[in-house]
Design brief:
The structure holds 2 protein chains of 2 kinds. Chain A is mainly beta. Helices cover 10% and strands 44% of the residues of chain A. Chain A is built from 3 helices and 14 strands. Chain A has a 12-stranded antiparallel barrel with strand order 2-3-4-5-7-8-9-10-11-12-13-14. A two-stranded antiparallel ribbon of chain A has the order 1-6. In chain A, a hairpin with a 4-residue loop joins strand 4 and strand 5. Chain A starts with a helix and ends with a strand. In chain A, 37% of the residues are buried. By secondary structure, chain B is of the alpha+beta class. In chain B, strands 1-3-4-6-7-8-9-10 form an 8-stranded antiparallel β-barrel. The radius of gyration of chain B is 20 Å and the shape is elongated. Classes of the chains: A mainly beta, B alpha+beta.
Amino acid sequence: MFSKILMTLCLALGLGEYILAQGLLDELENEQDSVQQVADATFKGTRLINGHSVETDGEGELNFIISHRFGRINGGAYEFFGLDESNVRLALEYGLTDRLNIGIGRSSFEKVIDGFVKYRLLQQQSGAQEIPLSITAFSSMAINTLRNENPERELQFKSRVDYTYQLLMARKFSSNLSLQLMPTLVHRNLVMTADQDNNLFALGVGGRYKLTKRVALNLEYYYRLNADAEENFYYNPLAIGFDIETGGHVFQLHFTNARSMIEEGFITESTGNFFSGDIHFGFNISRVFQLK
Amino acid sequence: MKYFLITALFLSSYFFSTAEAQKYRLSSSEVSFFSDAPMEDIEAFNKDSKSIFDASTGEIAFVVPIKSFEFKKSLMQEHFNENYLESDKYPDAKFEGKLQGYEAGKTAQEVIAKGKLTIHGITHEVEVPGSVKENGSGLEMQAVFPIKVADYDIDIPKIVFYNIAEEVEVRVHFQYQPYVQ
């Protein structure tokens, strides 16, 4: 019994002393952290490489993106390694809210005009409420405006229109590594043959690895799940690129087997075999203006 | 047995009470900084600080979560966290020290907070002049002081678009309430 009492006493004394000895800063730090920590900057830009990332432009941000894809590198010195030929896409995207973005673009490749809506459903965060993933829904429409070169066959407006639906799911694993998964559906109103499926399903994977504070290495690949005989002529789009961030600008330099810079084009109709050197050098330059 | 328990209880309450009696916690806070740069002014506000002030000893500590700084431009906020303060690695700015010249019971006084300030994982001894006022709900503390960005290894390269001044002005406004555990 006496030892029990002694123990109680020691405990009481010990505890008291412990609390006295503990610094104020330790006391603060030992408290449960109630502040929500949002995982920001999962990717540097709203584009991974060709396709979109989970990132959205903040409210009132106007993002002007100038993109180029040059000719094939294996064109050799005569073609200045592809630089003699180039196709351009100019685009504007705007953050209506931090979560809701709209955008329009125009590509010289097949004279396509595209428009998209992007909505951030979930943002990865830790703290009292844990959300393990960022999820952004993406939908776009692309209209081919090339002149009809075949006067015998009438081309209706709806035949020029394609739609893309994507779910972009990403997780920032550490401050350096982020990975993204992109289940995709491209619906084409007009396909090459009558028995070809108008819907092409694809699964994209991508990620970034930060090499330095301002330079990141990006990878992007789409596997076309139901590409049929007519589409064997095309390849799954693969791209590797670098993001260089300088504040208001993001420079993205990349190598890809795709010429088109919009989902409907690069996912369904990439003509290059990356490993035979059918590689196009290209870049996206994004400049953000704060309008609000 | 009874006596011992009472003694133990008494002793422990004695220790607890001397440790806690004159402590104050934040009821509201605002920490902001301002950078006056040639290109554009940069300003951010933070209301999520935590702090304890022990009026019996003049000891003070605070923790400011870096990610809670709110900027007008979300892109600036992203760069601030991702590139400058690296808030994933160094989530908090901290201060631990003493208010020199503090006398409990005075309604208004000028003091100097002397102690260790940690930002971006770098700790420096600092002396920050400020004021303490007693008001209806507790204590109000205010301080304005400059921080040299280079002192805390915050590297701002020449190519960045948002030029940040070499010195930013930090404003601290804390309202404390007496705190009972």
